[in-house]
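Appendix B. Worked example

We walk through a single record from start to finish. Start with the input: the chain for Zeatin O-glucosyltransferase, Vitis vinifera, length 371.
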Amino acid sequence: MKEAPVAVVMVPFPAQGHLNQLLQLSRLISSYNVSVHYVGSVTHTHQAKLRVQAHLESSFEASSQLRQPVAALLRELSPRARRIIVIHDSLMGSVIQDVALYEAKFLEDVPSLDGCFPLEFLNFIASQHQFKKLNSGNIYNTCKSMEGCYVDLLDGLEIYGGKKKHWALGPFNPLTICYDKKSNPGHRCLGWLDKQAPKSVLLVSFGTTTSLTDEQIKELAIGLEQSKQKFIWVLRDADKGDVFSGEVRRAELPEGSTGGFMSHCGWNSCLESISMGVPIAAWPMHSDQPRNTVLVAQVLKVGLVVRDWAQREQLVAASTVEKKVRSLMASKEGDDMRKRAAELGATIQRSMDEGGVSRKELDSFVAHITR
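Next comes the structure step. The output line below is what the pipeline stores for this chain.
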């Protein structure tokens, strides 16, 4: 039996944002002709492909059943590979506790702010801490062009009992999205976008795990209308009403007519928007989103805040929505944000080119696991 040089096993937490990040990382590593095995239940792997969101409770239950299957996969791969590298979400420590591994962590360094996480989720995170000592390094879905000073800071810290290796391999999301408009025209909104002026349309989307109250949907709709700005509003099934609904492809962001993105500031959404050079109107809902908002609005200065986290229990009035949308889409302040976002997006895209900072990070990581 011919021995494979290296086998990489990806173990994502079975929730959409986590599934997608490691799916994209798998794509990047496999481009180096390294064998990658993406682990998960059939249901959750299917969800990753279709971008369907499962409830967190079912994700907890699914993850608790994966330890034995992962161990079986490792036993199967062991005779056939010179080295097995396990890259796992930080929430899957209990699943891979039997092996020494590399950890891909995405939420570990986000402070647990009041109101960000339900108690059940905090307890689940806490239950994973005892397994941190097993990891040999950390992978971050970020780019040194964007957060270099923070990544460099981590290099000097002792984390979980010792110094770890750190790789900023992001962004994991594709930086170019190509589709044949003749053979695959996509959603009708894409055709409408093609006819709009450059940077004139606001994309409104709050991700896969957030739903708004009927009252908030109404205020948002009125505010968007009163702003007099063109927009596309993507609503989840749970939010569908008489305003707008439909499946809109991710191809909207790189469209030349998209000039702003009203977002919950989930990390995937932030990276996608910034890497495409699109500024963000931040409306954080939970989890890491409040701190992501700080990065976007205060540190990188490529966005503004629609709803401050301190006022999260309050209704965002239509007048506030109108004011913030106008500020992002029709003011000098918004133009300055668009310019900074475009410059940062171009820098991030160059980072993945040959010799770029993220490409060097990826080269370094692959060299490390294949040494």
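Two observations about the output. The longest helix spans residues 332-351. Confidence is low (pLDDT under 50) at residues 100-112, 241-251.
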